[in-house]
């Protein structure tokens, strides 16, 4: 069987052997539930989760109590909308701002609130001629969604300056950063960025599917939107409500319940433990060996020589996206797949930027730490044959 050349890291990264072996060892030798047992094995799992949480916190310059495990970036982005729109102080007259760089999961949950009348005003941040966010025209808004790196164009945005500009127009603006693509190639500092929320997925950095990170700066500010095991300390009838100590106390006409402190407050139910076991290992591997973007530069230089190919990303981007005159992106991708080269085709779940460029979709090349220059040269030769 011919060797597959996997150039679709931006969709999901291949897994380092160390991640696979760590997860296998956990499943075979260490598995137990977390936060519920009193035996040594359960305690060891609790320690593993705490170590992984601390590793993530160090990775993004946060406190461990601000790191919430989710099932992925999509889950995190939807949860943020649900959290914010369920707060007692939330107003449907608020304004939210997005941009055409956004992934569907970053923007559509807000547009869904617009559709059902739970929010009434949307603003779209302007893009400049290079399709970067035009910082000096950022609107005054109550909620700002920032895509740190487009999964179509692969160019890092100046998140710190974007947020600072938004806060200059509204000091109380709540900022949400989608760092799903950015995290693979650049260091994140949530304190420097001054963001309120941030998300990324584990599977894009070499961890398993089913685990993601949600950063919440002020975990005590918000009422939880998910409920269940692990996040409730106690439930009592109203006669005993005054006996409650500490925690977050909520009550209705029948009972009083007290939540745990963060991060447990935000993690109802059983966590994706196997994936968490591999997450900190994936972070270690990523920091030791990030993708070689010289491969992207080489591909850009070679494909830019072909008249039929229009490259829509820049040479210094983390990915390469292009279209071929007279060919549908799906056909290009299918023919590359038939030659054992895996790439992404379509709108990349980012319809707005394609629409802004006047195209329906594109072909995307992205690399991981496993890719070599020889592989890229083979892939470019295949593209040249297909286009001819």
Could you walk me through the main structural features you see in this protein, from its secondary elements to its overall organization?
The protein is an alpha/beta fold. The chain folds into two domains: 17-231 and 261-286, Aspartate Aminotransferase, domain 2 (3-Layer(aba) Sandwich), CATH 3.40.640.10; 291-387, Aspartate Aminotransferase, domain 1. 36% of the residues lie in helices and 18% in strands. The chain has helices at 17-30, 40-60, 73-85, 104-116, 159-169, 182-185, 190-193, 273-288, 294-303, 329-338, 351-357, 373-387, and strands spanning 5-6, 67-70, 95-99, 121-125, 143-147, 174-178, 197-201, 212-216, 232-237, 248-251, 255-259, 309-311, 320-324, 341-342, 344-346, 362-365. The strands form four sheets. Strands 2-8-7-6-5-3-4 form a seven-stranded mixed beta sheet, sandwiched between helices. A four-stranded antiparallel beta sheet has the order 12-13-16-15, covered by helices on one side. It has a three-stranded antiparallel beta sheet with strand order 9-11-10, with no helix packed on it. Helix 5 (159-169) links the parallel strand 5 (143-147) and strand 6.
Summarize the structure.
The chain is of the alpha/beta class and 388 residues long.
Query: What is the 3D shape?
Result: globular
Number of helical stretches of at least 4 residues: 12
Give the % helix.
25-40%
Oligomeric form: single chain
Look at the helices and sheets and give the structural class. Answer: alpha/beta
**H/E series:** EHHEHEHEEHEHHEEEEEHHEEHEEHEH
Number of domains: 2
Q: Name the CATH homologous superfamily of the largest domain.
A: Type I PLP-dependent aspartate aminotransferase-like (Major domain)
**Global Rg:** 23 Å
Number of DSSP E strands: 16
**Strand line-up in the sheet with most strands:** 2-8-7-6-5-3-4
Question: Which stretches are low in confidence, meaning pLDDT under 50 for 5 or more residues running?
Answer: 241-246
Tell me the fraction of residues in β-strands, as a range. Answer: 15-25%
Q: Averaged pLDDT, please?
A: 94
Largest sheet report: 7 strands, mixed
State the name of the first-level CATH class of the largest domain: Alpha Beta
Query: Can you tell me the CATH architecture of the largest domain?
Result: 3-Layer(aba) Sandwich
CATH fold-level name of the largest domain: Aspartate Aminotransferase, domain 2
Euclidean distance between termini CA atoms: 26 Å
């Amino acid at each position: 069987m011919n060797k597959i050349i996997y150039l679709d890291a931006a969709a999901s990264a291949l897994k380092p052997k160390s991640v696979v072996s760590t997860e296998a060892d956990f499943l075979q030798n260490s598995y137990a539930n977390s936060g519920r047992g009193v035996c040594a094995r359960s305690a060891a799992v609790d320690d593993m989760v705490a170590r992984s949480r601390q590793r993530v916190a160090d990775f993004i310059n946060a406190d461990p109590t601000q790191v919430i495990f989710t099932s992925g970036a999509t889950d995190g982005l939807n949860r943020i909308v649900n959290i914010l729109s369920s707060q007692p102080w939330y107003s449907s007259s608020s304004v939210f701002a997005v941009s055409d760089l956004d992934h569907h999961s970053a923007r559509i949950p807000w547009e869904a609130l617009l559709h059902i009348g739970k929010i009434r005003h949307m603003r779209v941040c302007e893009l400049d001629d290079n399709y970067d966010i035009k910082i000096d025209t950022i609107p005054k808004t109550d909620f700002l969604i920032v895509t740190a790196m487009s999964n179509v164009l692969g160019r890092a945005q100046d998140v710190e300056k974007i947020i600072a500009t938004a806060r200059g127009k509204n000091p109380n603006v709540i900022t949400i950063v989608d760092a799903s693509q950015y995290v693979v190639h650049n260091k994140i500092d949530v304190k420097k960025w001054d963001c309120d929320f941030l998300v990324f997925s584990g599977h894009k950095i070499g961890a398993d599917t089913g685990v993601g990170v949600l950063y919440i700066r002020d975990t005590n500010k918000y009422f939880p939107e998910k409920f269940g095991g692990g996040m409730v300390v106690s439930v009592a009838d109203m006669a005993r409500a005054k006996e409650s100590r500490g925690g977050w106390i909520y009550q209705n006409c029948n009972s009083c319940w007290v939540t745990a402190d963060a991060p447990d407050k935000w993690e109802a139910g059983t966590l994706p433990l196997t994936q968490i076991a591999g997450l900190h290992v994936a972070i270690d591997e990523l920091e030791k060996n990030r993708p070689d973007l010289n491969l992207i530069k080489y591909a850009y230089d070679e494909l830019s020589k072909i008249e039929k190919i229009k490259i829509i990303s820049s040479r210094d981007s983390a990915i390469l996206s292009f279209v071929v005159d007279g060919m549908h992106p799906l056909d290009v991708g299918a023919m590359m797949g038939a030659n054992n080269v895996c790439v992404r085709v379509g709108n990349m779940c980012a319809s707005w930027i394609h629409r802004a460029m006047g195209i329906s979709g594109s072909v995307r090349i992205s690399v991981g730490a496993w890719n070599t220059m020889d592989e890229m040269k083979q892939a470019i030769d295949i593209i040249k044959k297909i286009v001819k």
